[in-house]
Amino acid sequence: MWVYDAFSDGDDAVPQADGKASPGGDTNNADGLTLTEPSSSTVYRVAYDGNGGCLCSGPLAQHVKPGNSVVLQATFAGVPAEASKVTVAIPGGGTFSNVTVTR
Prior knowledge:
Blueprint (H helix, E strand, L loop, with lengths): L1 E2 L10 E2 L5 E2 L11 E4 L4 E4 L16 E2 L21 E6 L3 E7 L3
């Protein structure tokens, strides 16, 4: 399986400081991952740096053979310090509950 945009939200818009978004980002990254904090049901999206770069794995262009794996990373801002477990949703990969938060 080729890993290109399977973990992306499919949008190349880059969040800006004014709350708007501009085109020009990457769709071959892991910005489609989300976390849900169960006690508040708040959904957290992958964070971006001040230059509009996704704080996540990318650009993705890897071939993964059956039975093998690939390591991806994503940084999420704003998750409460007291949150110790979250639900992780991966586009095309499913939802995983009670995932331990690491900081």
